[in-house]
């Protein structure tokens, strides 16, 4: 007895259905990246990061950044924090912040965000350097 022709057609179409379905992303498929890692020490320093979809390498716009902090944890001084404010986005997928890098040395930028259409929270810690 042969295989039902309808069943045979469904089995043959399964690989095509898998190709047509979009890949489901997870929050770990995204990351913030510094656009530069060294800055001149001082007040009013602008730090820009890009939110990247690691699967495609493309920037991701419209994330909601709900937590931000900059401190000197890389120098062993996590309590040495500076004020940080969000600036208007310079381009889609880029996020800028203004802060005061009051001392030279290593600084840690901690960000937490919600990515549109994804569940969970993206949290990244980025290390940068303030130069004299």
Question: How are the SSEs ordered, and which strands pair?
Answer:
Elements: H1 5-20, E1 30-34, E2 38-40, E3 42-53, E4 58-59, E5 64-72, E6 77-82, E7 84-87, E8 94-101, E9 105-114, E10 122-131
Parallel strand pairs: 2-10
Antiparallel strand pairs: 1-3, 3-4, 3-8, 5-6, 5-9, 7-8, 9-10
Keywords:
132 residues, mainly beta, Immunoglobulin-like, 5-stranded mixed β-sheet, 12% helix
Report what the structure shows.
Helices cover 12% and strands 52% of the residues. The protein has 132 residues and is mostly beta strands. A hairpin with a 4-residue loop joins strand 5 and strand 6. The longest helix has 16 residues, at 5-20. Residues 17-22 have low confidence and may be disordered.
What is the count of DSSP helices, taking H or I runs of 4+ residues? 1
The CATH topology annotation reads as Immunoglobulin-like
- Any idea of the CATH class? Mainly Beta
Rg, rounded, reads 22 Å
Main sheet properties: 5 strands, antiparallel
Write down the overall geometry: elongated
Q: Which band does the percent of strand residues land in?
A: over 45%
Classified in CATH, the superfamily is Immunoglobulins
Q: Please report the distance between the alpha carbons of the first and last residues.
A: 83 Å
List low-confidence stretches.
17-22
How much helicity do the residues have?
10-25%
Query: Structural class, from secondary structure content?
Result: mainly beta
Average pLDDT taken over every residue: 89
Q: What pattern of helices and strands is seen along the backbone?
A: HEEEEEEEEEE
Q: How many domains comprise the coordinates?
A: 1
Number of strands: 10
Query: How does CATH name the architecture?
Result: Sandwich
């Amino acid at each position: 007895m042969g295989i039902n022709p309808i069943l045979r057609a469904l089995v043959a179409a399964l690989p095509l259905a898998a190709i047509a379905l979009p890949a489901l992303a997870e929050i770990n498929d995204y990351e913030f990246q510094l656009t530069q890692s060294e800055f001149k020490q001082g007040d009013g320093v602008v730090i820009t990061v890009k939110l990247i979809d690691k699967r495609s390498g493309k920037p991701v716009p419209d994330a909601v950044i709900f937590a931000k902090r900059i401190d000197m944890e890389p120098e062993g001084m996590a309590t040495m924090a500076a004020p940080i404010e969000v600036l208007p986005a310079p381009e889609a997928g880029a996020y800028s912040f203004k802060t005061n890098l009051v001392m030279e040395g290593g600084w840690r930028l901690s960000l937490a965000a919600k990515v549109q259409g994804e569940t969970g929270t993206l949290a990244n810690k980025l290390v940068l350097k303030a130069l004299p």
